[in-house]
Amino acid sequence: MNKEEFRGWQEVLFFTYQQTFKSKAVKILTVIFVLAALLVVPIMAAISSNNAKDKKDDSATGNSGAGLIEKMYIFDETGRFADEVLDYYAGLEEFSETEFIKATDLKKTKERIKNSKDEMLSILLIISEKETYHLNFYYNKDGEIGIMDLEDVTDVVVDGFKEVVIASLNLNEDQKLLVSNRIQTATTVLSTEKTKVKDHKIYFEEYQYTFSLILVMTFTMVLSFCGEAVANSIITEKSSKIIELLMTSIKPMAIITGKVLGMLGVVLSQGILLVGCLAASSFLANSLFPAGMETGKLYPKQMTSMMDSIEIDTHMLWAKVLLILVIFILGFLIFGLLAGIAGATVSKLSDLAEGMKLYSLSLVICAYVGIFSVQFGTSGIQTWLLHVFSLIPIFSPFTLTVYLLLGKEAIWVGVLAVVLMIICLYLLLRFAADVYDYLIYYNGDPIKLNKLLKLSKARKGDKKHAE
Amino acid sequence: MGLVVDKIVKKYGENTVVDQLSFRMDQPGVYALLGRNGAGKTTTIRMMLGMLAMDGGSVTWNDKPLSPFTTNIGYLAEERGLYPKYTLMDQLIYFSRLKNISEQEAKKRIKYWAERLQVEEYIYPTTSADQKKSRGKGAIQSRKAEQLSKGNQQKIQLMASLISDPDLIIFDEPLSGLDPVNADIFRDIIHDCIRKEKYIIMSSHQMATIEEFCTDLTILNRGKDVLSGNLNKIKKSYGRVNMYLKSEEDLHPYIKEHNLTILEETPDGIHIKVSGQEEADHFLKDLASQNVSLIRFELREPSLHEIFVSTVENDSKAGDEHE
Q1: Which of A44, A142, A320, B90 has the highest count of CB atoms within 10 angstroms of its CB?
Q2: H or E stretch at A101
Q3: Residue of B nearest to A8 (CA)
Q4: What residues of chain A, 339 to 378, have a C-beta less than 8 Å from chain B?
Q5: Which residue range forms the structural domain that includes residue B117?
Q6: pLDDT in tens, A222-244
């Protein structure tokens, strides 16, 4: 592998970039994404604006949320927080109409809420501690409290709990954040038919999980789309014999490098365009529906609880964002190169699916690893496994991008992962250099992985022999 | 100076597809590489261009290893290819840029070649004022390769291979699949390249094409050089062994009397094989003495086609016997 093998990659990059943007599919996708990005914030702001108005009306009539609750029984299994939280909640404006009672007999309180007609607007809050803090809400199935009302109450209660209890503990900022992330809430419906009809658990980290899932799936989709585009373009050049003409000017490695970087350019440009459109969208929403936007923020009120719950770790945020960008780019290059090699193992467009089988399978495995490690991470167990997944180069983009942002992995892990990814990319480039000039002229049935590895070994031997 | 191909070898496993092949071009002109299908011509060309690694030997240009990065090479491959979905203008500019030609200069050259090859209407399609109005600016866009006939695609490929004004040009079957008008356009361009003192390697199965352009040649069979040298000298070495006769009288009895072999009979005459000038003179004198009037008499060297067929057949027979 020498410098000459890469000569001319810039021209391939520019051509790939230009032609990808000229393709109808990309044009249509870009228009759809831009329109969606431009409209999403104003639409959400408009909805938020209406909701805020409705909520205001409801609170005025005392028909929903915290204002609806007549009595709240608090049973503290830990025996440490009841008095403090009771005083705190009683002083909140949201609970101005609510009577707070310290429950001493749990069984009797549950029975009362379940059976007494006077307790239809009562809830029972049980505070317990098992590895983490649990806030369990009980209410009558036939009462007037709905799940949406309870969610409003849950938000206020959890915020209050954090404010009073965690703040009072003698913890440093990191410990506070850790404890705060571990609070779990649950709601239980009490019914006369059965003691426990439904146990609907809502993890506090639910939004974090959704956010992580969106990142992993987006990355998987981008890699799937771009990988196929790279492979498709290589097979087109092979099957239509353009490669013969190209080879009089550049080497195969320059072609694959230019193509992968060209596609990366397309993805980054689309990303920048979308971010720009979202910013424009936010400004548009601010001027059109100011009531629906969070004050001083770029997102609508509707997203406030979600954004707060994601709890992006702002400590050294720019360094993390930069690291994530580097990990994304390196991941893109690794997978792009794999897609290029996979594409070169076949000679006809009709064999594309066959050639890409292994690539697609790897992508699916990586996506699953990403998703499962997110689950491991949020449930607070198996963090050692997360470290392993974070440092395996093909998994890093699917795990680290999320965890650095959420502060669940340290920056040094990210830096180490980058180093490992660079080594992996270099080895992959060497492998590509060994087999690619053979593959580029190969005409026949798709080449399997074992044959590819044998070929690489044989060609290394040939090169040594030639030297 | 010039091109030197020295004992190049290519093996695929146990199979040697090019075996110790050597030839050289010391001065501009056209050098022909001939051979049956699978003889090793395209493999030789690919090794020369650095597309395939050699298992032995060397290729030099002006005493330095031939490389697309140091030598301006134009290549019209046998298996032609263009990007089917991209516009002609875009891909021609791309091919030019790969040869380090600026976009501005590339556009000038594309214009020149488009006129020369009569493909302006595909690269610069014009639309009526009404069409422009109804379809917008995008309507005036260069055509895509998939919208062109095979012959026109071939012209674009020729344009792509010559756009960098290369010093060394490789034409693999340049005239195959062309109609007579387009074939003439290609011929003119090849003659132009010869006039401009380019080094040209040509591979073709059309012997007439080779005879029209080439000064030197190598005939390959099973990857080996079975005949090479200057075309005229090779022909001379065979002597004048082809006699063409046409008469209103029946010549068969005389031919039989002289034990001569008829190779072909056409309305245009009889093609007879003779051992050389002496036998031909003797036969002609005999006809004259018997007052046989001739409309046509021609004595000439074997055609390249005949040399090729006999050389390859003889080598194949020798190879089979050896095995």
Answers
A1: A320
A2: strand A99-102
A3: B98
A4: none
A5: 3-231
A6: 889 888 888 888 888 888 888 88
